[in-house]
Amino acid sequence: MKEPNASALTYVQMHVHSKFSINPLSGEGAFHPFLWPLERLVMKKAMLTPRQIVHLAMRDGIDIVDITDHNTVQEL
């Protein structure tokens, strides 16, 4: 059996949300009704923008990133 060629591998992140994946109308993300106040604060302040996510992926050698935000295409 042949060894796989490491340079032929593609690294994919299939599910990541940005800071824009919050929706006060549907209760998603930071507005989820069962979040503790500290969790809500962290989600609103510490999550990354799509641009930041792409830069981190490029830095870490991830070839494809699927940003799966809810109800928005903000900053595309």
Please give a structural write-up.
Helices cover 26% and strands 12% of the residues. It is α+β, with helices and mostly antiparallel strands and 76 residues long. The chain has one domain. It has a two-stranded parallel ribbon. It starts with 11 loop residues before the first strand and ends in a 9-residue tail after the last strand. The mean pLDDT is 76.
| Number of helices in the DSSP assignment | 2
Biggest sheet, spatial arrangement of strands? 1-2
Helix content: 25-40%
* Unreliable residue runs: none
Give a concise summary.
By secondary structure, the chain is α+β, with helices and mostly antiparallel strands.
Write a concise keyword list for the protein shown above.
two-stranded parallel sheet, 76 residues, alpha+beta
Fold blueprint:
Layout: E1 12-16, H1 37-46, H2 50-59, E2 64-67
